[in-house]
Known about the structure:
By secondary structure, the chain is an all-alpha fold. Helices cover 75% and strands 0% of the residues. The relative contact order is 0.11.
Amino acid sequence: MRFSSPSFALVMATGIVAIAARQQGWPRLALLLFDSNVVAWLTLSLASMWRLARHRGDVAGDLASLQRAPAFFTAVAGTGVLAGGMLVLDVNFVFACVLGLLALVLWFVLTYAVFAAVITGEDKQPLERAIGGAWLLAVVACQSVAVTAALLSGHFAQPWRLQLNFLALGMWLFAGMLYTWIIALIFYRALFLRFAPADLAPPYWINMGAMAISTLAGAQLVANAAQAPFLEALLPFLKGFTILYWATGTWWLPLLVALTAWRYLVRRDALRAEGLDWSMVFPLGMYSAATHHMDAHVTAGLLAPLDTWFFGLALLAWGATALARTSLWWRGARARAPVPD
């Protein structure tokens, strides 16, 4: 029996909705979501370590698979979002440091392991089967490290403060370049190759989510400008690219809604529980958090109450997905249960 790689998309989605809840003035809901997120992260981490110890061949095969490899980046992003939640919710600074360091190590190991394995792999598939929104998880993973480093920097004295801000800046810039490479392939695939309703998988919402977390990282760098002279010198650049990332993510939103309506209303594709996925919740929550943070440090209240509206949408999507995934798991468990004689 083959065990698939555990996905930390649940941790990503729950963590960012918890952060958005804190921003919107819902501290109890934020802590409730955060506590459940810690349990989810621990459970998925143990499952990942068990799989690595018992099924190394499957892990190696997934690393070289164009369809399954992107799931590894959810471990980085989930760990980074959990670390950021600890800082924003003021839960535990030491654990936040440990998780931030773990996210950086995981990013380094998994980024080079995945790209090296895929590049050298022999099972090359056509572009329409190989590329999708899930590959932008590589961008999300990188930006999660940037956000965590930027948040941690304010808790350290010099020179660590400078070094963490420089790390955050470098990761932010590289992730923007990585998005450019990957989104060009995704856009080409969508425009010029046949696109069936089933091809519009939920991870395509990461087209927007990757830009939303890039906006959040940029806004945090702007907020940190007073801590680092090189950031202060780059303020026009930082603000300009932060708005560029936000505008790009915002551009994707109506198109993704239209394509989703085309799939389920025009082409009459059946809406199943599998269609509700955490990779749709994370971008909505991240868009709310990023818009709130950018409005506080870049656009000075110009975008209110857009962040509040999207927090409501993200919370509804989180609840609907939790119910759908629980129902799906329950039906699967009942189907596997032995039938009594």
